[in-house]
Amino acid sequence: MDKSNQGNDGELLMGDLDLEWVYLLMSAKKAGIGADEIRRFLSEKTTLQVM
């Protein structure tokens, strides 16, 4: 299976998304943002999108 996202009409593969999340979470950790703060933010965002 080709793991590059070229030729997939811009779709990202699951592995690409996982790596993106790891990068974002590590960047947040380096910036001093705690996991609880991230969870709260994502929970609030999800709640607002549902409304």
**C-alpha geometry:** flat
The whole-angstrom Rg is 15 Å
Beta-strand content estimate = under 5%
Low-confidence stretches: 1-6
Structural class: mainly alpha
Q: What is the H-and-E element order?
A: HH
Q: What is the helix fraction of residues, given as a range?
A: 55-70%
* Spatial gap, N to C terminus: 39 Å
Largest sheet: none
Quaternary state of the chains: single chain
Number of strands: 0
Mean pLDDT: 75
Number of helices: 2
Describe this structure in words.
The chain is mostly helical and 51 residues long. Helix content is 65%, strand content 0%. It is built from two helices and no strands. The longest helix is centred in the middle third of the chain and has 17 residues, at 14-30. The N and C termini lie far apart (39 Å).
Layout of secondary structure:
Elements: H1 14-30, H2 35-50
Note the main attributes of this structure.
flat, single chain, mainly alpha, 51 residues
Brief synopsis:
This protein is an all-alpha fold. 65% of the residues lie in helices and 0% in strands.
